[in-house]
Predict the 3D structure of the following.
Amino acid sequence: MTMAEQSTEHLDPADARPERLRVFLVDDHAMFRAGVRAELGAHVDVVGEASTVAEAVTRIAAVGPDVVLLDVHMPDGGGRAVLEAMRRTHPQVKFLALSVSDAAEDVIGLIRAGARGYVTKTISPDELAAAIRRVADGDAVFSPRLAGFVLDAFAARPDAPVADPELDQLTNREREVLRLLARGYAYKEIAKELFISIKTVETHVSNVLRKLQMSNRYELSRWAADRRLV
C-alpha cells in the first residue's frame, strides 16, 4: 500500500461531500417561506428568515449566510432596500431575487442594486437549488426570459439609472396590483395572487388611478403596456 493510499484509507465519506450552503429567506408571506424552506431542506441549510426589510437587515448581518433569497415587493422599499443596506457592510453575502414579478424594471432595478441573479417563483425546487449554488460560486443567474431585459438595458445605457417619475410615485404593492390588473386579472384573482383582501385591491387601484390621473383600468392597462410592465 502506498503512502497516498494510506492517507486516504480512513477518510469519512462525508468529508468528500460538498459543503452545504447557508441560505437566508426574505419574503413577507410566511406560507411561502415555509414552502421554500421545506423544498430546499434536502439541498441547503436554511439558517434564517425575515418578513420585513428591517428584520432582514438585522438578521442577515447577524447570521452571515452564503446566499440570501430575496423577495422584490415588500413594504418599506422591498428587496432593493435590503440590498442597499447590506452591500456596503456585508459585500461577501450574495443575493438571488425570487419574485412573482417578471417585469423588466424590477429585474434591472434589483441587478443594479447588487443582486447576482433573478428568478421567478415558478422555478422548480431543483432548479432553485442549482441557481443558489451558481450564485454562491459567483455566477449570474436569470430565468431565460429575464436575461434579455438585463442585456438590453446594460448594452443600451450602461451607466444610466432606470427611472420613471410617474412609476416612481407608486409603491411596490401598487405596482404589483397594476401589473396584474393590466394582464386582465379580476380583483378577486389579484387578491388571491397577492394574499390580500379584495377591498385592499380596490384601495390600491384607486390610489394608482389617482396618482396617475387616470379614470379606468383600460387606461391603466395601456399605460402599463407602454412601459413593458405587463
